[in-house]
Design a protein that fits this description.
This protein has 541 residues and is an alpha+beta fold. Strands 1, 4, 5, 6, 7 and 8 form a six-stranded mixed sheet that branches. The structure holds iron/sulfur cluster. The site of iron/sulfur cluster has 13 residues, from helix 16.
Amino acid sequence: MFTLRDRRTGDLFDRWSDLGEKRRRLLERSWAGVFRKHLLENLPVDELSHHLDDRLGRPSKDLHVVIGVLILQQLHDLSDRATVEALAFNMAWHYALGVQSEADAYFCEKTLRNYRRLFIAQGLDELLFQRLTDRLVRAFDVDTSRQRMDSTALRSAMRSLTRLGIVVETISKFVRELKRSDPALHSRIDADMIRRYVDCEGDGAFANTSPSVSRRRLLEAGQDLLALALQFRGTAAEQLSSFAILERVLRDQFDVVEDGSGKLATPIAIVRKPADVPCDTVGNPADPDSSFNAHKGQGYMAQIVETWCDDDPDGKGNDTANVSSPDLITHVEVHKMTVHDGHRVEDAMAGLETRNLKPAMLLGDSHYGAGETKAMMRTREIDLVAPMPPAKGALSGRLTLEDFALDASGLVLRCPNDIKPTSTSASRVRLQARFDLSDCRRCPDMLRCPVQADKYDGSFARFQYTPVRVANRKRRLYEQSKAFLDIYRWRAGIEATMSRLKHQMNLANLRVRGMPAMRYVVHLRALGLNIHRCARVGQGI
Ligand code: SF4
């Protein structure tokens, strides 16, 4: 049975009247004041109450307090024990949550864990973030016409494992889970395998493997992995989550070869080359949802969209400047590392449009600046200010179309070495410039120039390109102009927000694993940062 206290009717007696004027003002202008004044009445209690019976069972805690405690726990990055203590004794928490009775001021840790599990299982974190952020946007009159977007890599609470470590942990996890769930099936596992993978004792235990022999031992561990998969396929063990991980690791890390000649009694597992292992593989069986990115490592990616205003002269975000309106995070999404940033823009903008927070201008880095993303944003009537990714070859020092001088129709006037082409031509799909090959042969940039000796006429070098390439060149040159840089410099402010999220809200040291828990924590910490920012602005109002 759920409990909901009436929060709209005022109190007959002011519980906080014994506070002096200064302490009262401090409380009202802190995060606690923002929470109590703007958010407490807008918590999604109805959505949570749907999952509790309205008549049967013990009365729940007041749902406003329940949801409030979950938010404040993440806002302050507290352990469960510290949260229970804060709820019991912290005056700011009592003020923020409108605690009115002894029953409201105490949760046991198990109750807290159960509500959090329910919240995560029902995916209420996203709803909570969106509803309360929308409320803050309206309450603080935040201008959402200009926003910026960026992504950051996050790591859950998991160790980095070698490939051998992944296989060993996978086998160990499966064996331990099988022992708990089905002791009869567990008893069929070879005792030597249990000794080597679970007990980690004696000769051949994988815990004692030195790096120099790990490749040979990976092959050995692969055979054990395959043997377990073959032994337990078609049994009750198939229902275990650890068996699904075991099958996934076997599929991703090894090629299973059936011996057609009949010399081998069973199939064998051959170790795959590292380049053939998919990025979205299991990096640690403790967190099979995480994925791998060659630049960012193992973990998750979070997309963040926030508002920005130009009354922050340094463009560093308004945590450090004296501003009248907070920059608020309006959109958060946690996804796999294997998804490109540019592919998440459309969903982000659709979500903001649904909530009436669609920006007129969005700033992003070059990961968001592809031509298709620009075109999509034009259909949504959003001005995407993001530089194009560098031209192919530019980063490796090759000359590109940007280095050639073109006329208004896109035809080459001069090459980077100031040589005029002998002829130029244009069709609907291709433009071309021809240079005297003897000039090019004398040129010090010949090896890094895109011109190629003409196949049909050996006295010329040819450079062919497309009209799309001409348009991209125009855009890239515009991106070096002062007009572009004057607007684009405001994008850098979101780096400060990322830093705040990681170090002030402590997303850099997470204690959770798995996609649902990561989403929960990231949404609530982003909401926490919004509350801190509103409190900061509120101190000046
Ligand atoms: S190789 Fe030929 S086209 Fe290229 S920069 Fe040198 S002279 Fe110009």
